[in-house]
User: Fold this.
Amino acid sequence: MKTGLVSKKQAHQAKKDKKSKNKKQRATNKAQADETKKKIQQAAREKAEQDRQLNKQKDQQARIKAIEAEIDQLITNNIIPRDDTCDIGYHFEHQNKVKNIYLNNELKQHLIEGKLGIAMINERYELVAKAIAEKINERNEQRIILIEKTDETMDDDDPYADYQIPDDLMW
Assistant:
């Protein structure tokens, strides 16, 4: 103004424009800050949800692992011992495959009567009492084979009803 290049009115207008520009810039910065804040909050919510899902999955895996350990302990503590006299092969189906376990006559009879069950531990099969087998079956039905005693009622129309099947017949 002193040099005469700008009038008082122009100087006032320039100052006003500068203030207006600063005010708009602050508003824009605030809007950008709000938008950034919203994005950060959304990312935090998504991460929290992802962490919840991951924790839920880990909890489920831990629960499954605990159940498997409990089943292993039940089987290990309640195995019915088999010795060298167990030379009769007993065939059964497990997971759509025919498996084999060696028994003696007494164990085979108990198994057929439904007093025993076959449990799987470490890729091998062991005999356990029926009560233990039912406990295992409640926890994981894929680890146990329960042999149910079948009703031996005769059908009236059976043409072979007069012929009795021998007890020592091996299939």
